[in-house]
Amino acid sequence: MGDSGHTLTVLLIGIGMIGLTVIINVAGVVLWLRVLGRRIERRAQKNQSPHLFRAILDTAVALLMLHVVEAYLWALLYFYLPGQSGLDNMHDAFYFSAITFTTLGYGDVTLSSEWQLLSGLEGMIGIMMFGMSTALLYAVIQKCWMVKHKGRIDMPEN
Fold it and tell me: Is the separation of the CB atoms in 12 and 115 below 8 Å?
């Protein structure tokens, strides 16, 4: 297979992984929002305010777990790539994936040159997933605040 054929193969694999990452993220977020929504509704039915601290903490943990799963799936891809990815064990594959997904990218562990394009694609989707997580955390804070303060956006005086 020529360079252009291999590049197309790498792009197709990367696009498939991006799709899988988005599906996992969206499904996880929808599931989490259902769980959190039920918690808030139960407290509202009892005339209790939502626990803002707990909602933020639990949401952050849920999102972190989602990102770990997503990075781990990329690591599995790197470990089981046809031919040599340059990553000899799952530890290195997961380490590489985690620093790539977060766009930290130390450069101490890298893919072989024929697969390097995948790391750029993982970095792109990783930054998007963290952006979505930031937006979700903001939305959770806003929703809890609105429920707790009965729709008021301004800060209470006491």
Answer: no
Q: For residue 37, which amino acid is it?
A: G
In whole angstroms, what is the distance from residue 109 CA to residue 99 CA?
A: 10
Structural domain containing residue 75 = 3-148
Residue 153: inside a domain: no
Handedness of CA 22, 25, 31, 36 (dihedral sign): negative
Q: What is the pTM (predicted TM-score) of this model?
A: 0.86
Q: Could you write out the DSSP letters of every residue in 33-94?
A: HHHHHHHHHHHHHTT----HHHHHHHHHHHHHHHHHHHHHHHHHHHHH-SS--S--SHHHHH
Per-residue pLDDT tens over the stretch 110-120: 899 889 999 99
Task: Report the mean per-residue pLDDT for the chain.
Answer: 89
The reply to whether 104 falls in a domain is: yes
Within 8 A by CB and 6+ apart from 121, the residues are 11, 14, 15, 17, 18
Cα–Cα distance, 53 to 39 (Å, whole number): 13
